[in-house]
Amino acid sequence: MLTAEKPDIRNLSLDEIQIFFTQNNEKSFRARQLYEWLWKKAAGSFDQMTNLSKPIREKLIENFTFHTAKPDKIVKSSDGTIKTLFRLFDDTQVEGVLIPSKNRVTACISSQVGCALGCKFCATGQLGFTRNLHYGEIFDQVTTMARLSVENYQTSLSHIVYMGMGEPLLNYTNVMKSIEMITSANGLGMSPQRITVSTVGLPKMIKQLADDGVKFNLALSLHFADNVKRSAFMPVNIQNPIPKITEALKYYHSKTGDRLSVEYILFNNRNDSLSDARMLAEFCRNFPVKVNIIEYNMVKNTDFQKPDEAKQKAFIEFLENKNMVVNLRRSRGKDIAAACGQLAGESME
Q1: One of 95, 137, 167, 263 is an active-site residue; which one?
Q2: Residue 348: pLDDT above 90?
Q3: Report field, pTM of the whole predicted structure over 0.85
Q4: Where are the alpha helices (DSSP H) in the chain?
Q5: Is 95 considered catalytic here?
Q6: Of 139, 141, 309, 343, which sits 20 to 30 A from 41 (CA to CA)?
């Protein structure tokens, strides 16, 4: 006889947990203790909840599942970057990267198992799409990497970027709920200003962010400012062309007043000419932005390569001469397959 799967404990609100305890003749303050274990102390199992009696823990095990993202493989680069492969309850995998720099430690986290968008240069795109992550699984990536930051760098995790596997805005509800629990006083209490969500540019969802009055930072993974080129290498652009993205970002800025980040990976002979730089500068005139030029981290089964230093320098200088704020993000973790999706792809193989 088939039985319904037990609900995941992290799907319950505090009020729902209180109802459960009341129905089982337990004091209501136990609900607050349990909730703190879930979101403040980031417990990974009921057995860790030591201020709950053994009978209470047994009743929780009897009534609920506790699906968590557990670190399965941790590799450390010679440059200090740490990549973690997480195994999920259904045996799927995602990855997160911990990136130390001079005065910050950034966790790059995933929002989906794989990705449906199929960008030609991306390792995750080669994996296809399996499912969205639950907000608890996103939360687990953050707490694991916060612990690894203290253990390896003796400093707290300072920033979070949703730039790992998947398109965050295609998993909108879970991404927003995960940010709520990361920033809430009932959760990790992190400032939303230390969180950045990156999107390839989905106009409808960008407008939704604006209407929801989000407090975190928004980044656009643009990579091509030429609409024809972008559609060729990023198929999502066919239905969401640059003019529509521009309109949505103007709306976003009008509602939030925030400066945007534009992410631009340089590809040799694909988007690295001065003509490409001119189109990027034109795009960025529509709203206040800072531009992050990113070195390409080579991906197997593609013919994309990074340009030489001279072309990279000329591209950046062109933008700077237009009085634009430009940062160069050097490729990190090359020796540990740190580009999004690489480690998961190797594990699948």
Answers
A1: 95
A2: no
A3: yes
A4: 14-23, 29-39, 54-63, 123-127, 135-153, 172-183, 203-211, 227-233, 236-239, 242-256, 274-284, 309-320, 342-348
A5: yes
A6: 343
